[in-house]
């Protein structure tokens, strides 16, 4: 499969487009932000496949920067009061504090918007990566951006380590949220994550909501920031209207 090697460096080999899923605040009845999600226009790859391939070929940082750059293009069109949530791989986050032309150019281009960007650390971090991720988070904060933990679905040493960095947001993943209204085990895990968020003074966002029952259960637990197909699907156009219960 040599023809598929180094596809990042070839001209438009697999064009990446970005769609945006709104994050709603039920209390304020408004859109507080959008999560940027990478999509691939051509087969045979899905985004997850490309990320796995770039990891195996040692090009994940290059590919991650391409996805980030494409996601940032929406910033001039966004309401000034809304946030842009972007995913960042642990290894990419760990390189941010190093001097490099690609990273410097990326951040130079978003300087005026950096206070409205939330970098979501994806779930691929290993405990051994913690120290350089910690330095990457410090870099983000010095540059005025916020930091979120993405796709949290349980309690463990990794969550406790990352929570010590006091993330601005903790996003609880679909694996835990789907069916939570009818699952006491998931409810207990959720309450423990709530406790961790309270100690780290992090705002909780429940994502992956696909049922009204789950949304109502979360709302009764005091969770107002929500995201999921039940409310709005990702779209290339920004959803600006509140979609409530």
How would you sum up this structure in a few lines?
This protein is an alpha/beta fold and 245 residues long. It is 36% helix and 20% strand.
**Domain count:** 1
**CA gyration radius, whole angstroms:** 18 Å
Straight-line distance between termini:
49 Å
Structural class: alpha/beta
Instruction: Compute the average pLDDT.
Output: 85
CATH H-level superfamily? EAL domain
Shape: globular
Strand order, largest beta sheet: 7-6-5-4-3-2-1-8
Highest-level CATH class: Alpha Beta
Number of strand elements: 8
What proportion strand? 15-25%
| CATH fold annotation | TIM Barrel
* Helix proportion: 25-40%
Order of helices and strands: EEHHEHHEHEHEHHEHE
Q: Mind telling me which CATH architecture this is?
A: Alpha-Beta Barrel
Largest sheet: 8 strands, mixed
How many helices? Answer: 9
Instruction: Give the low-pLDDT segments.
Output: 1-12
Task: Provide an overview of this structure.
- Strand 4 (117-121), helix 5 (130-142) and strand 5 (146-152) form a beta-alpha-beta unit.
- Helix 1 runs antiparallel to helix 2 (60-72).
- Helices cover 36% and strands 20% of the residues.
- It is globular and about 50 Å long.
- It is built from nine helices and eight strands.
- The protein has a single domain (2-226), classed as EAL domain (TIM Barrel, Alpha-Beta Barrel).
- It is of the alpha/beta class and 245 residues long.
- The chain has an eight-stranded mixed beta sheet with strand order 7-6-5-4-3-2-1-8.
- The protein has helices at residues 47-56, 60-72, 90-95, 101-109, 130-142, 157-163, 174-177, 184-200, 212-220; strands spanning 16-25, 30-40, 83-88, 117-121, 146-152, 169-172, 203-206, 225-226.
